[in-house]
Amino acid sequence: MTNRYQPNEAPCPAPLELLARLLRVSDEQAAETIGSLPERQRAELAVFCYGRAHMRDLGLQIAALCSEAMMTRTAGQIGNAVFHQARQIRTATKAVGEPYRRTVTLARCA
Q1: What is the Cα–Cα distance from 86 to 67, expressed in whole angstroms?
Q2: What is the pLDDT of residues 26-54, one digit of tens each?
Q3: Which of 19, 20, 22, 49 is deepest in the core (most CB within 10 A)?
Q4: pTM higher than 0.85, yes or no?
Q5: Nearby residues of 10 by Cβ (< 8 Å), 6 or more positions away
């Protein structure tokens, strides 16, 4: 039998219910929930979310709560880059005072 019906995406490193909750709650509640996860799982989840355009902001938020060493150990250079990008955004947010929120736009059918 072949792997014909197996998805070609990496599985989510956290339960889907947890991921759905993180996408629905406020940033403060998400940070509290993320903080309760083991650091390795946080790093894996950060890279998983960052790799998907619609969850990139969540991935950066999670990466900001990880150590640089764990992000690098988990995903190599990509993990390191995500960690530094998350820190830059966190620093810019503190300087400005208001977090950057990307607006949602819907495609129009022609």
Answers
A1: 11
A2: 988 999 999 999 999 999 999 999 999 99
A3: 49
A4: no
A5: 48
